[in-house]
Design brief:
The complex is a heterodimer of chains A (112) and B (454).
Chain A lengths: L1 E7 L4 H10 L6 E7 L6 E5 L2 E5 L2 E10 L4 H12 L7 E7 L17
Antiparallel strand pairs in A: 1-5, 1-6, 2-5, 3-4
Helix pairs in contact in A: 1-2
Chain B lengths: L4 H28 L5 H28 L28 E4 L2 E6 H19 L9 H23 L4 H6 L7 H19 L15 H20 L7 H29 L4 H18 L5 H18 L2 H5 L7 H19 L20 H30 L7 H6 L1 H6 L17 H4 L22
Antiparallel strand pairs in B: 1-2
Helix pairs in contact in B: 1-2, 1-3, 1-7, 2-3, 2-4, 3-4, 3-6, 4-6, 4-13, 6-12, 6-13, 7-8, 7-9, 8-9, 8-10, 9-10, 9-12, 10-12, 12-13
The chains are: A alpha+beta (112), B mainly alpha (454).
Chain lengths: 112, 454
């Protein structure tokens, strides 16, 4: 099993959600995060004084999946989250040892 | 006394307009401040409405606008008995301007001037954000009002040295209000010192829409401030009203132009600040100059104040919200413009023609002298009061309180508590789980439980 984690632009969440829904992904978790990448935030000027806003607001999307669907999911997230401009984010995949469904106690692939 | 209903109604409305400027100022300053000190910032304005109103009725008005029996002392102070207290003996008295009837009850003039005293003291607070103990502010407001505002108002408007002897003109408060408050702000902030982390840390405005709302309320109220200062309703009232709009609009343009050229982008903070700079600069001149010079005055004030707010970085004083850059500099520009463009064609009270109307440098020198006296006096006494408060340790909050936020340390409340009441409705998962963000007071004591009064 795999965990697909994506950090994306906030305004791309709807597109990513739609793309994953179209693939039949049963559930996902989103959280608000802040960070910076190569673009190093942006600057704002107030009364002539320049301020660097280092941490930009982003959305983190997490999806649990089996080994078969992982490539399709990664492709779907990357395609739907892309605007082509700097700050589009990143997607990474990590192995998952075990998953348990709280309600039934099912484990592994059955719990996905 | 025969009441002139038009004049009296206008002055009553103007008084209410000028009062509204102080809550407007609270929003303007509150929005420019960081969120952890927003309430303290606004409280410094609101506390002036409470404190100064009462002091003005008790003794401020009498000492500022009464006439002292000694003509020497009358240069600096009015009467201690004429309108002292809240007596009823003068309730039916008519306010006279240079002996001429106005048809306005003295009580109405007293309350109009009360609103000026309130906002002048409140203006100073913008330089002192996030680090002055609230008790220290209240004591300072009391001391500065008594020792500086009241005598300066007498010197400028009450028949004292600057207005009556030197002949410096100030229609609505360029010297008595803005130079006065700006010089005091500089004096106190030099003693108070910089905020921790200034200018290295990010101290950008926390709520720009508040800034714009506050500037809008100030602009609206300022028509009472400026056009109301004619007291009566006549052609000068009309010119003052028109000039207020024109100069403010031009200053908004001037400030934004500087930003566009220098920083590449015009900002809403800049447009709001430019409007306030224009309002400040036109204040002394609005009843003395023609509308076209008022446009020029606005452009110059907007552009110069946009540059002047950068001075604090060069000289290293933390005038947090630019009281010096906007009110002191704007006040001086407006005062000197009287010496350049005032004319008896607009207002016979001007008495002398200015430089561009063939009057030479005479009036300009008088303006310089009057503004200079107020600058030196207000700066000196304000710094002295600050040193006294520092000596008795009712001055700067301790480091923990400053870093944690003066709102919680000195007022026990915070501007933005986003946990929904009762735990229902909107809010994030933490709110639904009943996990409140812990509020920690200055002593490090966390408190999330609710205390019921009584």
């Amino acid at each position: 099993m795999k965990l697909v984690t994506a950090v994306i632009k906030p305004y791309q969440l709807d597109a990513v959600k739609e793309a994953l829904h179209a693939l039949g992904v049963a559930g996902l978790t989103v959280s608000e995060v802040q960070g910076y990448g190569r673009q190093k935030g942006h600057t704002e000027v107030y009364r002539g004084a320049e301020y660097t806003v280092e941490f930009l607001p982003k959305i983190k999307v997490e999806v649990l999946t089996d080994e078969i669907d992982v490539e399709k999911i990664v492709d779907a997230v990357v395609t739907s989250a892309r605007t082509g401009k700097i700050g589009d984010g990143k997607v990474w995949v990590t192995p998952v040892e075990d998953v348990v469904r709280v309600r039934t106690g099912e484990r592994g692939l059955d719990a996905l | 006394m025969e009441i002139n209903t038009g004049n009296t109604a206008w002055l009553l409305v103007s008084s209410a307009l000028v009062l509204l400027m102080t809550p407007g100022l609270a929003l303007f300053y509150g929005g420019l401040n960081r969120s952890k000190g927003a309430l303290n910032m606004m409280m410094m304005s609101f506390s002036c409405i409470g404190l100064i109103s009462v002091l003005w009725a008790l003794y401020g008005f009498s000492v500022a606008f009464g006439t002292n029996g000694s003509s020497g002392l009358n240069n600096f102070l009015g009467s201690f008995s004429q309108y002292f207290g809240t007596g009823t003996s003068w309730i039916g008295e008519e306010w006279l301007v240079a002996g001429a009837k106005t048809g306005i009850p003295t009580y109405v003039f007293m309350v109009f001037q009360m609103m000026f005293a309130i906002i002048t003291v409140a203006l100073i607070s913008g330089a002192l954000s996030d680090r002055l103990k609230f008790g220290g502010w209240v004591l300072f407001a009391f001391g500065w009002f008594t020792l500086v505002y009241v005598p300066v108002a007498h010197m400028v408007w009450g028949g004292g040295l600057i207005g009556a002897k030197i002949g410096a003109l100030d229609f609505a408060g360029g010297t008595a209000v803005h130079i006065n408050a700006g010089a005091a702000a500089l004096g106190v902030t030099l003693v108070l010192g910089k905020r921790i982390g200034w200018p290295r840390e990010n101290m950008r405005p926390h709520n720009v829409p508040f800034v714009a709302l506050g500037a809008g309320l100030l602009w609206f109220g300022w028509f009472g401030f400026n056009a109301g200062s004619e007291l009566t309703v006549d052609s000068v009232t009309a010119v003052a009203f028109v000039n207020t709009q024109l100069a403010t609009a031009a200053a908004l343009v001037g400030w934004c132009l500087i930003e566009w050229l220098r920083d590449g982008k015009p900002t809403l903070v800049g447009a709001s600040s430019g409007a306030v700079a224009g309002l400040v600069a036109i204040t002394p001149a609005c009843g003395f100059i023609a509308p076209l010079p008022a446009v020029l005055l606005g452009l110059v004030a907007g552009a110069l104040c946009a540059l002047a707010v950068g001075l604090k970085y060069r000289f290293g004083y933390d005038d947090s919200l630019d009281v010096v850059g906007v009110h002191f500099v704007g006040g001086w520009i407006g005062s000197l413009f009287i010496g350049l463009f005032a004319t008896t064609q607009v207002n016979a009270v001007a008495a002398r023609e200015s430089l561009f109307y063939g009057g030479g440098l005479d009036q300009l020198w008088r303006q310089f002298l009057g503004s200079g006296i107020v600058t030196v006096y207000s700066f000196g006494i304000a710094a002295l009061l600050a040193l006294v408060l520092k000596a008795v340790r009712i001055f700067r909050v301790d480091q923990d309180a400053e870093v944690g936020g003066i709102d919680i340390a000195d007022h026990g409340e915070s501007a933005y508590d986003l946990v929904p009441a009762g735990g229902a409705g909107g809010g994030g998962a933490f709110a639904m789980a009943g996990i409140a963000q812990p509020t920690v007071d200055a002593d490090g004591k966390a408190s999330v439980s609710q205390k019921v009064a009584g």
